[in-house]
Design goal:
Number of strands: 61
Largest sheet: 9 strands, mixed
Strand content: over 45%
Protein name: Fibronectin type-III domain-containing protein
Shape: flat
Structural class: mainly beta
InterPro entries: FN3_dom (IPR003961), FN3_sf (IPR036116), Ig-like_fold (IPR013783)
Strand order of the largest sheet: 4-7-8-12-19-20-16-22-14
Radius of gyration: 35 Å
Distance between the termini: 51 Å
């Protein structure tokens, strides 16, 4: 099926699973109870008891039962209306499709499907009256409504197709139950619903029947319908069976077209007159809108709007563009867009450009001169006369032939500037412009070409992230950590020295570990720079997840410093130990386990467990002695769980640093900390202050409560939160809880 991203997706199946985030269809496969799995072809199948499983980076949807009540199939055999889906039970399924990606998908309590270039064949039998929305098609005809209770009428009705069409949809809707009807083609061939292909993977069929029982409607979808007379046939006295009913025809909505007629050739604005833009728009429906833009390229990248919402049927097809002080000096194409909110927008570009010199912009700096000597490019220019000037900008290119400037320098209001690090014998181009307080820029000066006259050249230092690492003496996230930053010179010229700064958690002076001066790094070579930090002195473990490396004060100066700041990700394992007492324990995971699968996590203590239970997304239970009926399959950081133990023991979980926040919905939430230290409760809940009303904990067999309106320890015995323990939190306003660590 290819690789199509799912963005901003939420999938809820019953109350057993909630899947959020960014996924990819080709990463989803169905895992059968016997351990086999389907290839990732885009099929999502299973019943309401589905769970997620991650193995070697792949995400699988698993089911512990053999019967399925949800099947979603999206093969891409046809280009217009193909695929399959069945919904049963109490679900709502929302889909919006485009050619290359699913834009939105959610399951709750209504049905909404849209036909576009990547479509699905529907077989909907849900009692909740799903709705099929047909997009990219328009109504082209309909029959008279047949009324229930009137005298019997002939059961056949005809319609004519007298033009070539890519697709045709014949819809029949009724009052009391979905209608089944036959459709006879101009050649005399009659199709019945039972003749529709039983397998959505079948190809070679040009007609499909779609039944939407809950909404009392059905469809024939026809590819390349032949011209001529068609006959719709229903049984005798059909109104007595289905009530009032009527048929409607839908054909593809023709996409609009647009052409920019002028400027057809390059022109120069005279600084006084409006610029006349002419275009030709075509839309059969006359419901399209046209927008005009200007851009310094013919692709529309970074285009700026001139006007929007011009009706396609409006005449004349011209627009007078009044140039004002918002338009920068430059050479611009005119870009036109036409859209009808049904088809994808169409764009067109003018063949000619308009040269605009803004009368409100500064003049180009005069007497611009450049001199290259000993690796230094010395520049000078005359001072501009404008009182509202904010400064000058110098542009440098090391590929003068392509008119592209790779580097630019804002130099303020000075009238001279030096650029160091030029390579001996290399040709450069340099230019300058002026900028005022309104942000308007002058026309760029004519470029000056210079040749570097020094053998030094410019180095280019960066962090080699693949060969940088975090380590400790124990191999765990504890004690003294050593940060090895590999500084790599990717240029052909050596550096003489540089300063390397290392920060933990965030790039701020308070988080600076050390700043070290290093000697030169040879061309295409590297140097390892070491830093150390005592992790026990860092309050929040989340500040130990990322280490920032900043490279400054490089000698010889770099022309490119965009890659001087980068991050080393800490992959040291964060090991959690949870003490479990005999009887009932309310616990949570503070780290992200190596695998969230419950079986390997509890393997070492499984003989001491009666059961594990969760109330996240409904009640789920895991019994190591009754795996067939166990519904809890994963243990996740930040979630709370009941552990009913036969005897006391310690659960050790190997993992990594988990996320520093989680969403808490309205009502009770069973959750816990993803920190490594005990935290005063009031401090831990700073981010949701005023949005929770109760907190309950079970510690050593005793329930403890905290009431934020009565925080006195006499009434609120629960005063601290501990990693490894689970908590019931009553939320009055849905919020994101950001965990805090004790200082």
């Amino acid at each position: 099926m290819g690789h199509y991203p799912l963005e901003d997706v939420t999938i809820k199946i019953g109350n057993k699973i909630k899947l959020t985030g960014k996924l990819t269809i080709s990463e989803i496969a169905y895992a059968f109870p016997d351990g086999t799995r389907s290839s990732p072809t885009g099929f999502l199948s299973g019943n309401v008891d589905l769970t997620l499983h991650i193995n070697n980076g792949d995400l699988y949807v698993e089911s512990s039962e053999s019967s399925n009540s949800l099947t979603l199939t999206m093969p891409q055999k046809s280009e217009w209306i193909h695929g399959g889906k069945r919904v049963t039970g109490d679900f709502e399924l929302n889909f919006e499709f485009s050619k290359t990606r699913i834009i939105k998908s959610q399951i709750s309590k209504k049905h909404d499907h849209k036909f576009t270039d990547l479509n699905i064949r529907l077989d909907l039998s849900n009692q909740d009256a799903p709705v099929v929305t047909i997009d990219n098609f328009e109504k082209i005809g309909s029959g008279e409504t047949r009324k229930k209770g009137r005298s019997p009428r002939k059961k056949d009705e005809q319609f004519f197709i007298n033009e070539t069409m890519d697709q045709l949809i014949v819809k029949y809707f009724s009052e009391e139950q979905y209608p089944e009807f036959d459709l006879t083609f101009p050649d005399g061939t009659t199709y019945h619903p039972s003749m529709s292909p039983p397998d959505v993977e079948d190809v070679g069929y040009d007609i499909y029947f779609l039944a939407n029982e809950g909404a009392h409607e059905s469809y024939y979808a026809i590819q390349n319908p032949p011209q001529g007379e068609y006959t719709l046939s229903t049984p005798d006295n059909y109104t007595a069976i289905v009530g009032d009913h009527q048929w409607v025809l839908y054909g593809p909505n023709s996409p609009p077209e647009i052409i920019v007629n002028s400027p057809a050739s390059n022109m120069i604005w005279n600084k006084t007159s409006d610029i006349e833009i002419s275009y030709t728009g075509l839309d059969v429906d006359d419901d399209a809108k046209i927008s005009l833009y200007y851009a310094d390229n013919n692709t529309g990248k970074d285009a700026v709007m001139i006007v929007a919402g011009i009706s396609e049927e409006y005449s004349p097809k011209t627009f007078s563009w009044t140039i004002d002080d918002s338009v920068q000096s430059g050479s611009y194409y005119i870009i036109a867009k036409i859209e009808d909110e049904v088809n994808a927008p169409e764009y067109a570009c003018s063949t000619g450009k308009i040269d605009i010199v803004s009368p409100w912009a500064p003049q180009t700096p005069a007497n611009f001169m450049a001199n290259s000597n000993s690796g230094v490019l010395s520049l000078s220019w005359a001072e501009n006369p404008e009182a509202d000037l904010i400064g000058y900008r110098v542009f440098l290119s090391d590929t003068p032939s392509d008119d592209t400037y790779q580097y630019n320098f804002d130099v303020g209001l000075v009238t001279g500037f030096e650029i160091e690090g030029l390579t001996n014998g290399k040709i450069y181009a340099v230019a300058i412009n002026a900028i005022n307080y309104s942000g308007l820029e002058s026309v760029l000066s004519d470029p000056i070409e210079v040749i570097g006259t020094d053998i030094q050249g410019s180095p280019d230092l960066c962090l080699d992230t693949q060969n940088s690492m975090i380590s400790s003496s124990t191999g765990k996230l504890e004690g003294t950590l050593t940060i090895q930053a590999r500084i790599k010179n990717i240029a052909e010229h050596e550096s003489f020295s540089a300063r390397i700064a290392c920060y933990y958690g965030q790039l701020s002076q308070s988080n600076l570990i050390e700043s070290r001066l290093i000697a030169g790094v040879g061309a295409n070579s590297y140097m390892d720079v070491l830093f150390e930090i005592d992790s026990d002195n860092i309050p929040s473990i989340h500040d130990l997840q990322y280490f920032y490396i900043n490279i400054v004060d490089v000698v010889l100066p770099e022309l490119n410093d965009d890659n001087n700041l980068d991050i080393i990700v800490n992959t040291l394992p964060f090991v959690q130990e949870i003490s479990l007492n005999a009887g009932l324990n309310l616990v949570s995971l503070s780290n992200m386990p190596e695998s969230t699968d419950i079986s390997p996590i509890i393997l070492s203590i499984s003989d001491k467990i009666n059961y594990v239970a969760s109330y996240q997304n409904g009640f789920q239970r895991y019994d190591p002695n009754d795996l067939k009926n166990s519904t809890l399959s994963d243990l996740l950081p930040g979630n709370g769980y009941y552990f009913d133990m036969k005897e006391s023991t310690t659960l050790t979980i190997n993992g990594s640093i988990a996320t520093s926040s989680r969403f808490l919905g309205n009502g009770w939430n069973l959750t816990g900390l993803t920190t490594r230290r005990e935290v005063p409760l009031a401090d831990a809940f700073n981010s949701i202050d005023g949005k929770y009303t109760r907190v309950w904990a079970l510690e050593n067999g005793e329930w403890q409560m905290y009431d934020p309106t009565n925080p006195n320890p006499i009434l609120s015995k629960l005063q601290t939160l501990k990693p490894g323990m689970g908590y019931f939190i009553l939320i009055s306003t849905p919020s994101t809880w950001t965990y805090g660590d004790a200082p």
